[in-house]
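Please check this.
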Amino acid sequence: MSNLSSRLSELIGKPVHQIDTPALVIDLDAMKRNLGRMAEFAKKHHIRWRPHAKLHKSVLLAKMQLKAGAVGVCVQKTSEAEIMVAGGVHNVYISNEVIAPAKLARVAALTQAVAPHQGQIAMAVDSLEGVTRLAQAMTEARIGGRSPATVIDVFVELDVGQGRCGVEPGMALSLAMEIRKHPALRFVGLQAYHGKAQHLRSAQERRVAIASAVDAVVATRQLLEAQGLRAGLVTGSGTGSLVLEAASGVYGELQAGSFMFMDADYAQNERDPAQPQFEHALFVKTQVISVHSGHAVCDAGHKSHAIDSGLPKVHAFDEKSQLEYFNGGDEHGILRPSEGNTRLPGLGQMLWLVPGHCDPTVNLHDAMIGVKGGLRQGTVERIIAVDARGAMT
């Protein structure tokens, strides 16, 4: 056990005010409510859910999601998949393209690792070369491995508006046909994730964006079916748009992950009335270390939270925070009164920040401190390792 792990484990059973700062803290009660609401939503709409483990990078939390009804988890990196499988999560979808032969050999090895557990590995492709390389890696693994019958599930990724990976609908047919030529590959459906739609602020903007994505999926399915190919499962969606994909009649699986923690950026979205009421559950605990006439300084700078989706918000236990957080550099945050307020926090006062973006914030920490009973009067229940921290290959 590392010194950090040993020190954090000593917090178990201690009151929340004894957590040193800065620290990444999970409100376990809020997180479990979020998890329950997602499970209930999926069940009500008769849709599978496969949350993104790249959010929390934790085997423990992945298993919690599986216990709640998730069919598996998504990851973006081969190393994330390896860590999940090593931890006992045996149904993993790498919802990303993997091209490097060395990585593909690792992916192929994972298919053999999960086989004894009746698990399954899946991966996305968006090029003929990608299909060929994956087939070669699987063939080599079959020759050298002990499980020659293993196959990998393959999704053809469509570009439905993200403008990143994925092919146009017309190209999906050739990829699906190529996949079917290889015994070790199994074409199982379409990856149709619209990342940009997740952060469109108005519900109407998101409806328009997802309607366009659904049209692209339908057009692709028609092309496949015209050639006698079963289109299979359509997987995608995120926390910002999950109600739309679930209601589409086209998507069969939701990949939303951020609902578990809910960051400050998602909180800026206009909520669709049909969406479950998810709560903030991930916080950076910080302490005021300096006070001046017009501002205060806390000990949580950019090394404790990601800023790609904006600076964190100071959590308010009432309706509106009386403080705003400003850039103070790597190790410091500047706190100023919000509009209409004049009061500053006192020296040593503990505050809670809601990160702008959960995923990269988690990746900055070795562990998350799970608190039960609320942030004011709660106690530390468990320490949750960020198992896949830095897993980027």
